[in-house]
Amino acid sequence: MTTAQSPQDEPEDAGEDQHGGPVRRSQKQGGRPPMAALERLAEVIAAAHPNPDAITRDSARKALTESGLGAGTLRLTEAITLVRSTARARQHPDRPEDQ
């Protein structure tokens, strides 16, 4: 039984082999497999930044590099967004905490 592939699942041509036939690749040119899951990138960034509002792209990239990880521009942005979205909302200083 064969499964149908959508056009986006099919590898793109990477050129010609020595016999003139197409050479297939499994990912888009210029890309490479991620080094770590998005959640792992977010964990590393969050650990280095107790205050999510203080995260900058440079500081997030530095935290990843120091932990031996890396991320492209898009994944870095996604990881920072994930950290910020999962951070606990700050309490207004003039209002007591909800009980």
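The record above closes out task 2.4. Task 2.5 opens with a second protein, given below.
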Amino acid sequence: MISTLSGGVLGVSSTLVVEAFRSKRDQKLRHLELRRTAYVRYLTALTDTETALQTLALSRPTPVANGEVVAAFRSQGVIAARYEVFLVAPPVVYDAARDAYNLLRAQRVAIATTDVAVGDDSSEWQALHIPYDVAFRHLRAVMRDSLGSAGN
């Protein structure tokens, strides 16, 4: 009788332990997928916002009216995507996401306040674009690292 009871307790205990590990693993996988989705959404929003700003600056002389520049900046949902990343990202990703956003915002300000020609042969544009591009590449790298380390 004692051996039967002991066997039953052991069986139930081992099932509970296995279920707890499975639940923890599933929760980690769901969080990883949530982060991956937020990262992709943010990278897409940054890219689309930069394209919208460049398109606007190429379509007319700069400086472009602030209202138009702000509308182009907000048209791609970059602010909402940024908040989403800040909710799920570790600090290293959060910091890199903020840096890329701030440099993209600097492009927005320049288009609205200065006479800047957008293009590869414009030193003024390159002074704005290259730091953003470096920050964007860094952001992608830390996001990739974040997702890789979470999967291990």
